[in-house]
């Protein structure tokens, strides 16, 4: 997928994702061995008749005509056409932006925006158990997100070095403006300001707070506080339209580019499509497969993970992360910071994890656990080198 986040990512020189790139190769009369992703070649149709297409893979492209498609196949190309009558791309070439997911909200409200329409399509076609045709379309979509994610992360780590991404997990139902929400936002703001990539599961609650903190990385703590105060009157994600409208209003008041520098990364899933994707992540890799999405978050967050108060989903992530750290399946691990002493005292997480991680075949890893209410202590733990 996207490999070790501490190592260079695979080069993308063989992938064509824009018409400008395509036309450059077209001028050389060769697309041999290249992968062409999601282009509308039915618009201003190119003449492919004299172009070498040996081993060319067209994925999710609209070719100029059925005759042109048959011609390139006869001459050695492979074609995976886009699936018809689906609201999502067969093979997205790029990650989503908040604007992509919220498209249609101004005209039709939450029920008519892109994110909701895809979720409704997901439900209408079997949800977690889709028919074969739908399953293939979803897998192709998620493969495109995998590919786009790898490229986005390659650019990030090339610019920032291998300091590691920090995952921030926690309850999806945490209301805007709560103490836990503010704490997660402030910590993410400090981490992002120090050049760390914030990674979340992309939902509401603590996840939104973390991406919000990262969204304000280049702004002041006072501006972040003002934004939270503006969001707080629409605290509950289940009240979809006011919740979404408040987020878009804050984005309009405090505009920022749609990049990893402003908001970090979010990896949500349409399996939990009843939870609106938060709109403060800079880039969003939204998946159909929750299993792929969960593994991606934890595989990437090797620079440490913050576990804010949460319940079943968060506890599941705690032990998935612990398994990776125990076996070092994805390399050295940063700290596990549990924010909120009172919350975590009520769950036996620390009591189970310390003896488990102490028995890691790679040496005692129990020192990685930090339970605190102090953001300075959390920052110190997360700034320590991975072990």
Task: Give a quick precis of the structure.
The protein has about 375 residues and is an alpha/beta fold.
What features would you highlight for this structure?
11 strands; Rossmann fold; 2 domains; alpha/beta; seven-stranded parallel β-sheet; disordered N terminus; 387 residues
Net shape: globular
CATH third-tier fold name of the largest domain? Rossmann fold
CATH architecture identity of the largest domain: 3-Layer(aba) Sandwich
**Unreliably modeled segments:** 1-11
* Count of distinct strands: 11
**Gyration radius over CA:** 22 Å
| C-alpha termini separation | 24 Å
| The CATH class of the largest domain | Alpha Beta
* Fraction in beta strands: 5-15%
Approximate helicity band: 40-55%
SSE order, as H and E?
EHEEHEHHHHEHEHHHEEHEHEHHEH
Number of helical regions: 15
Mean pLDDT: 93
Q: Would you mind describing this structure in some detail?
A:
The protein has 15 helices and 11 strands. The protein has 387 residues and is of the alpha/beta class. It has 2 domains: 63 residues, no CATH class; 286 residues, Rossmann fold. The strands form 2 sheets. Strands 8-7-6-5-9-10-11 form a 7-stranded parallel beta sheet, with helices on both faces. The protein has a 4-stranded parallel beta sheet with strand order 1-2-3-4. The protein is globular, with a radius of gyration of 22 Å. The two termini are 24 Å apart.
Sequence-ordered SSE layout with sheet pairings:
Elements: E1 15-16, H1 19-27, E2 35-37, E3 57-59, H2 66-74, E4 78-80, H3 98-102, H4 105-108, H5 114-124, H6 132-160, E5 165-169, H7 179-193, E6 197-200, H8 206-215, H9 221-231, H10 240-253, E7 265-266, E8 283-284, H11 290-300, E9 305-307, H12 312-327, E10 336-339, H13 341-345, H14 349-358, E11 369-372, H15 375-383
Parallel strand pairs: 1-2, 2-3, 3-4, 5-6, 5-9, 6-7, 7-8, 9-10, 10-11
Helix pairs in contact: 7-8, 7-9, 11-12, 12-14
């Amino acid at each position: 997928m996207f490999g070790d986040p501490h190592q260079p990512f695979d080069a993308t020189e063989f992938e064509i994702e824009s018409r400008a790139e395509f036309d450059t190769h077209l001028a050389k009369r060769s697309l041999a061995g290249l992968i062409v992703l999601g282009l509308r070649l039915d618009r201003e149709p190119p003449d492919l008749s004299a172009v070498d297409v040996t081993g060319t893979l067209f994925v999710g492209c609209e070719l100029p005509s059925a005759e042109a498609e048959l011609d390139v196949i006869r001459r050695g190309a492979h074609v995976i056409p886009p699936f018809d009558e689906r609201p999502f791309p067969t093979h997205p070439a790029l990650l989503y932006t908040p604007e992509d997911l919220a498209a249609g909200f101004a005209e039709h409200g939450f029920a008519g925006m892109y994110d909701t329409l895809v979720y409704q399509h997901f439900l209408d076609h079997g949800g977690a158990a889709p028919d074969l045709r739908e399953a293939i379309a979803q897998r192709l979509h998620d493969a495109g997100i995998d590919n786009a994610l790898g490229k986005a992360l390659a650019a990030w780590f090339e610019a920032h070095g291998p300091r590691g991404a920090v995952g921030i997990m926690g309850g999806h139902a945490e209301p805007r403006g709560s103490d836990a929400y503010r704490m997660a936002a402030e910590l993410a703001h400090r981490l992002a300001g120090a050049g760390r990539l914030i990674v979340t599961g992309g939902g509401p609650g603590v996840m939104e707070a973390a991406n919000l903190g990262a969204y304000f990385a280049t702004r002041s703590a006072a501006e972040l506080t003002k934004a939270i105060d503006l969001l707080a009157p629409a605290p509950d994600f289940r009240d979809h339209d006011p919740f979404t409208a408040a987020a878009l209003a804050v984005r309009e008041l405090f505009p920022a580019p749609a990049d990893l520098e402003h908001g970090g990364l979010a990896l949500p899933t349409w399996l939990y499509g009843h939870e609106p994707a938060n709109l403060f992540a800079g880039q969003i890799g939204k998946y159909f497969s929750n299993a792929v999405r969960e593994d991606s978050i934890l595989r990437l967050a090797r620079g440490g993970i913050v576990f804010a108060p949460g319940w079943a989903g968060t506890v599941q992530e705690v032990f998935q992360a612990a398994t990776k750290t125990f076996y070092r399946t994805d390399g050295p691990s940063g700290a596990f910071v549990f924010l909120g002493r009172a919350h975590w005292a009520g769950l036996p997480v620390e009591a189970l994890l310390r003896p488990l991680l102490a028995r890691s075949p790679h040496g005692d890893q129990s020192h990685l656990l930090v339970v605190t209410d102090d953001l300075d202590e959390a920052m110190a733990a997360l700034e320590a080198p991975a072990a």
